[in-house]
Amino acid sequence: xxxxxxxxxxxxxxxxxxxxxxxxxxxxxxxxxxxxxxxxxxxxxxxxxxxxxxxxxxxxxxxxxxxxxxxxxxxxxxxxxxxxxxxxxxxxxxxxxxxxxxxxxxxxxxxxxxxxxxxxxxxxxxxxxxxxxxxxxxxxxxxxxxxxxxxxxxxxxxxxxxxxxxxxxxxxxxxxxxxxxxxxxxxxxx
Length: 190
What we know:
This protein is mostly helical. The protein has helices at 2-18, 31-40, 43-63, 67-76, 78-96, 100-121, 123-139, 144-155, 157-169; strands at residues 174-176, 179-181, 187-189. Strands 1-2-3 form a 3-stranded antiparallel sheet. Helix 1 (2-18) crosses helix 7 and helix 6 packs across helix 7. The longest helix has 22 residues, at 100-121.
């Protein structure tokens, strides 16, 4: 199993490096911007971003034939997934009190359903995006938070808005799609 996983990782590295014009998700948020985002983005927003990434990668494991990659991700990132999961539960408890478990289950189911719809609408885009995320996490060893923020900004309009507003409030520049947006909202680079 381990050698199959390594072989799959190598295949992804080769495929990703040969795809011309593919945007590598790991460059979506620079190191400087990430340092600012780590301070600016509220813990619950980071937890929501990590859960969005996790749900999409789980769907990709099943629907894009990326099971081994998902299993490798789940094992390698178990501690931060657990920590962000605890923050997510705490956030839902603050919002919903005794109904938190029901609400978080509804939310996570909604994430999986949204991922499945995006997969059905554009298989190549969805599976390509998750493959790039796996590559950033498992080959390039990018921190899960950095990938999660970049990924969430790409796939979740509500998280994109939360991240952008929190970053602007803290005076950070962020990437919005293909633009670098300064804290004052002006486009710095298109």
